[in-house]
Amino acid sequence: MARKEDLEGEGLSVRPDTVGDVTSAVLNRDGVGRGRLNARENQVVCGIPWVPMILNAYETRLEFVPSAKDGASVATGDSLGIITGPVTTLLMAERVLLNFLQFLSGITTETRKYVDALGQSSTRLLDTRKTTPGYRMLQKYAVACGGGYNHRLGLFDRVTLKDNHLAANDSQSGEPLTELVNRSKEQNPNLLIEVEVDHLEQIPAVLKAGSDKIMLDNFSIEELQRAVALIGDQACTEATGGITLETLPELGNLGLDFISTGALVHKASWVDIGLDWE
Questions:
Q1: Which CATH superfamily is domain 2-106+269-277 in?
Q2: Which CATH superfamily is domain 116-266 in?
Q3: Does the pTM of the predicted model rise above 0.90?
Q4: Of 217, 223, 257, 272, catalytic
Q5: Catalytic entry in 21, 196, 213, 238
Q6: Alpha carbons 265 and 107: distance in angstroms, whole number
Q7: What is the per-residue pLDDT for 14?
């Protein structure tokens, strides 16, 4: 898709009869070129296994020799690897290749900051479904390379009863909430059941039904302490909502099993990686 977008404009070309890399086509040079992928700022790398696949979409004779691995921290000026092959196709693939590497490494770098903020806590950091449409699996992979853990991949792999599910079913508390969780367990015996709550009074009804996990949404520190004590080992606990780098150290000391945040993806910025001609 990215190659077609770059070479053909996905139908937006002003002259549909002219496609391809018209810039590289004017070069008066054949033969083999060589470029080095360099980190232009400190970062955590992600996307190295994709490099050969991206290059292969342009030219099977393009070769890549990596010098870094996904999840590795690199410093400004460090090499990520060497690419060799036909000059024009190497230039043609450059931007798309860098786009993927910068995009994914940005997520991995951001995730590592959050993991480091948790320090030695046993609480695990989770991602969410707040991802770029069509790129979820790539982005979740990048989170994992940064030291985070993947939450559910989609709507299919666990039952997660969130606030709007409870509201739509008029089951926000008490017996209706217990009945909804019980029904979820009966209809999905092989899936984990998770329930999102936004106040402490909901927790007893969820525990009564035996939910596997309770998501504590936008709870204060004091409320989280009370919730963890109330739940004990009856269910796994997950704090979510308003998670920041500044609050993570304190949250990591509360005895929570998990903390989840979409910020690992939607707050991440691309990192700077360049292809330098040799």
A1: Quinolinate phosphoribosyl transferase, N-terminal domain (3.90.1170.20)
A2: Aldolase class I (3.20.20.70)
A3: yes
A4: 217
A5: 196
A6: 6
A7: 64
